[in-house]
Write a structure and sequence with these properties.
By secondary structure, this protein is mostly helical. The chain has helices at 10-26, 37-94, 121-140, 151-203, 209-217, 227-249, and strands spanning 3-4, 223-224. The protein has one domain (3-234): Ferritin (Up-down Bundle). It is built from six helices and two strands. The chain is rod-shaped, with a radius of gyration of 33 Å.
């Protein structure tokens, strides 16, 4: 006996819900509909909401993906310039051009020449701001500006990154919010699909098994066969073919 299984992806839910609604609209006489008019109206209303929710989620997701390419490029450039500037500060200290204790203005330890961890957005934002503030404070104390790269150039790339990082967070939040709206609707969609399937199967309960399955499939019900049932059907088809060949030979 085959068993049915509710769709487990958003697109599968959409196809199944749409199939039931289209089948209901295709039947001219509502008395021939295999499920209730109330279920049809509920499904039709839910289909409109579900399609809109999926479309809004896709728009947000596509916009986030499109923006991410530019964001990643800006991120890498900001990381490169902040890292390079810190390396130049360390080199200036080694050449005695800057006093070691001035590294504290940048949040750097005087004896440590290792570039801080810049692997995450948060770390890059933190150290980028420290470097910009530190160079400003050092110059205010009479220190000569560092060049190649200058802090002005570092600041341009850093601020571009900070702006896009904030924008990307907004886009991500929009995508997550729309995904949550879809997930909330999934429960309603599953419930109405189950309701329709139950009503359809009840309508055709007295039909022969094969006819019942064919009728139910018209309403989008998806049936699956267990492994043992598949083997049994395969053997039956093979025996039928062999009998047909034998009759032809006679």
């Amino acid at each position: 006996m085959p068993y049915r299984r509710l769709p487990n992806t958003n697109q599968a839910r959409l196809r199944t819900l749409k199939s039931a609604v289209e089948q209901g609209q295709k039947i001219g006489d509502i008395r021939n509909l295999a499920f209730s008019l109330k279920s049809l109206e509920d499904a039709r209303s839910l289909l409109i909401r579900y399609e809109r929710a999926l479309d809004e989620y896709k728009q947000c997701s596509d916009l986030q993906v499109k923006s991410n390419k530019n964001y990643q490029e800006t991120l890498e450039m900001a990381r490169l310039y902040v890292s390079h500037f810190i390396q130049v500060v360390n080199m200036c200290v080694l050449r005695k051009e800057i006093k070691a204790e001035f590294k504290l203005l940048y949040g750097l330890q005087p004896e440590n020449t290792v570039v801080p961890d810049l692997s995450t957005d948060e770390k890059l934002l933190e150290w980028g701001q420290k470097v910009i503030n530190g160079e400003h404070d050092r110059q205010m104390k009479g220190g000569a500006p560092i060049y190649n790269p200058s802090i002005q150039k570092v600041k341009v790339f850093y601020e571009n990154f900070a702006e896009l990082e904030n924008k990307q967070k907004v886009l991500q939040a929009n995508t997550v919010r729309k995904m949550e709206e879809v997930n909330a609707l999934n429960k309603e969609v599953d419930a109405i699909i189950l309701q329709i399937w139950d009503e359809v199967e009840s309508t055709y309960a007295n039909k022969e098994e094969e006819e019942k399955l064919d009728k139910c499939k018209e309403y989008g019900i998806i049936y699956y066969y267990r492994r043992a049932e598949k083997r049994k059907m395969s053997m039956a088809d093979t025996n039928s073919l062999e009998n047909s060949v034998s009759l032809q030979e006679i």
